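Question (not urgent): is this output format expected?
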Amino acid sequence: MSPIALGLDILLVTLLVSALVTGWRLNKRLKALREGQAGFVKAVAELDSAAARAEAGLKALREASDTTHDDLLTRIETARGLIARLEAANAAAARLAPPAKPEAPAPAAPLRRSEARLDPRFRPAPPRPGARGVDDDLFESVPEELSALAQRLERRP
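Got this back:
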């Protein structure tokens, strides 16, 4: 064999080996791309199912909102009717009630010994008739007549 033929054979072997290595690397990249594409298809399918679930949830939420809106409107209308009835009952009761008589002022309480020695400018003022303490209305219970009236009004259509 001549040296030129031998050189060409070596060149051909080198080119074939480099093509084989390039083909092997390309096959590896294509395999990774296929796996990535399968993962992408799976992610798109999961996203689609999540969107469908979200759409169903929004539809249920919209229906619940509409139902709640209708219930609230019904309750508001019922409350307005009850307010009108209570105002009419209040007006009727005010017409039927006798006029209030002014209360006579209560006599001043006698001074205690410690208060008697104080300068009159610094004595505490006597309590006003009918005056209530700060906490009196916090612990006041609802009169039975009002709770019975409220129960009767709730039962009426």
